[in-house]
């Protein structure tokens, strides 16, 4: 029988010292101002998620407009519309694949900044499009940027945030993605489709300017042997008055234990593959809830129903409700816990923001860059299959058929949450990794 965690010794358990100095969570309670630089760095990074959310739903008002376009080079058939809606997810899958290399090669911050190039180019192509190929290429490039940021930003935010506010900050990528979608819906009421693409360039430029002044992840810097830079980065993030010695030593010890490259033999160790499998299944099941095709074709879905309001108004209302729900999740997940929200809330409060946060929390450091990219790849390949087939299924069997399938998947998600997902509330990344290493079913204090 395994010995209790308390009082145990050895490298696997050193994240629970008998008399630890004040934890990051306790330090955070002294005032939010002490974390103001963490908030600034997080905001700079999640502007990439704003652009991702904006680009994801760009087709919602644009497809109806192009289906009735008088320009024969831009008028879309149903098949062309399905490609215009779904090709974004193929780009996102390619972005996730590239993140498997870039996340650990360039670091989290530089990888996020690199996403600005395909994003800006994609918006420019769609704004000046005079043929279907420009629309498809623009969607693919913005999708590539979105997939890259989806893999890198949650990791960056989780690695710079103190444990006490990591839940709230970990929800900001999803919060900003939803805000980006809402902004697109709102601007769609005012601007023609070309100017919607022009407006998408703004957040990309602001992200580049702000991120240029932000530090890289201390954990990434330590993994590259840049200890002095890592110490400076952590000191900048925590503020001049913070005592960072204990936190820095914990991170340093964890990085030192995992400084070698991951071998295939080690990858078969349960403490390594269990969190990766859980993260992959969360990303797969999240997409199977149907959120991506629903958002991509939201205005067209409302157009085929007997709702009272115009479809573009309905889409904007959905965006506002999603934003409010994610905001509530961000404010409550450090109090209620991750699993509780996964059980009792809808997508925007649970499986939307929390699965991204949990992915960045539970993945082991040595595999975090590659595994997060793999999760995004699986996520967006699943999204492509659903988005490409959605309109075809609706035309063949009616709108109710895909929604019955999505409801069945949600039931599976409840069972998966109960038996496989750990509660990470209030735990440092080192404690979470120690939990998987010890093969326990739950955390002990």
From TrEMBL:
The chain crosses the membrane at residues 38-63, 83-103, 110-130, 136-157, 169-187, 193-214, 276-295, 315-333, 340-359. The keyword Transmembrane applies. GO terms for cellular component: plasma membrane. It is a multi-pass membrane protein. PROSITE patterns: MFS, SUGAR_TRANSPORT_1, SUGAR_TRANSPORT_2. One of its GO terms (molecular function) is transmembrane transporter activity. Keywords: Cell membrane, Membrane, Sugar transport, Transmembrane, Transmembrane helix, Transport. Residues 41-425 form the Major facilitator superfamily (MFS) profile domain. It is found in: Cell membrane. It comes from the Eukaryota. InterPro entries: MFS_dom, MFS_sugar_transport-like, MFS_trans_sf, MFS_Trehalose_Transporter, Sugar/inositol_transpt, Sugar_transporter_CS. Residues 1-27 are annotated as: Disordered. The keyword Membrane applies. Belongs to the major facilitator superfamily. Sugar transporter (TC 2.A.1.1) family. Glucose transporter subfamily. This is Solute carrier family 2 member 6. The lineage of its organism: Eukaryota, Metazoa, Chordata, Craniata, Vertebrata. The gene is SLC2A6.
């Amino acid at each position: 029988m395994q010995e209790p965690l308390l009082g145990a010794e050895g490298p696997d358990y050193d994240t629970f010292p008998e008399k630890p100095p004040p934890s990051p969570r306790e330090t955070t309670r002294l005032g939010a101002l002490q974390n103001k630089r963490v908030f600034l760095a997080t905001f700079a990074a999640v502007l990439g998620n704003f652009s991702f959310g904006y680009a994801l739903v760009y087709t919602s008002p644009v497809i109806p407009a192009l289906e009735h376009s008088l320009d024969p080079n831009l008028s879309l058939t149903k098949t062309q519309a399905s490609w215009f809606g779904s090709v974004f997810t193929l780009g996102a899958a390619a972005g996730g694949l590239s993140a498997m290399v870039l996340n650990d090669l360039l670091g989290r911050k530089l990888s996020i900044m690199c996403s600005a190039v395909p994003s800006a180019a994609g918006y420019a192509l769609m704004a000046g499009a005079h043929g279907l190929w420009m629309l498809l290429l623009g969607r693919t490039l913005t999708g590539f940027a979105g997939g890259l940021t989806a893999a890198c930003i949650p990791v960056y935010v989780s690695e710079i945030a103190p444990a006490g506010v990591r839940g709230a900050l970990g929800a900001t990528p999803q919060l900003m993605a939803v805000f980006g979608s809402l902004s697109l819906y709102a601007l769609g009421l005012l601007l023609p489709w070309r100017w919607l693409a022009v407006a998408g360039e703004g957040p990309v430029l602001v992200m580049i300017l702000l991120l240029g002044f932000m530090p890289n992840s201390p954990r990434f810097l330590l993994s590259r042997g840049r200890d002095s830079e890592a110490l400076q980065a952590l000191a900048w993030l925590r503020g001049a008055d913070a005592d960072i010695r204990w936190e820095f030593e914990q991170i340093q010890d964890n990085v030192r234990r995992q400084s070698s490259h991951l071998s295939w033999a080690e990858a078969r160790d349960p403490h390594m593959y269990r969190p990766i499998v859980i993260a992959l299944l969360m990303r797969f099941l999240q997409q199977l809830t149907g959120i991506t095709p629903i958002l991509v074709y939201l205005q067209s879905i409302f157009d085929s129903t007997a709702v009272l309001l115009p479809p573009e108004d309905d889409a904007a209302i959905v965006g506002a409700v999603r934003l409010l729900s994610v905001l509530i999740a961000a404010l409550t997940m450090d109090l209620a816990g991750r699993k509780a929200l996964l059980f009792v809330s809808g997508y925007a409060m649970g499986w939307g923001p929390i699965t991204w946060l949990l992915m960045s929390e539970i993945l082991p450091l040595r595999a975090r860059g590659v595994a997060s990219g793999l999760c995004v790849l699986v996520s967006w390949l699943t999204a492509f299959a659903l988005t490409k087939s959605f309109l075809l299924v609706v035309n063949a069997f009616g709108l109710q058929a895909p929604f019955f399938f999505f409801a069945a998947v949600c039931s599976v998600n409840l069972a998966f949450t109960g038996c496989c997902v750990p509660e990470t509330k209030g735990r440092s990344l080192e404690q979470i990794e120690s939990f998987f290493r010890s093969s326990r079913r739950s955390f002990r204090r």
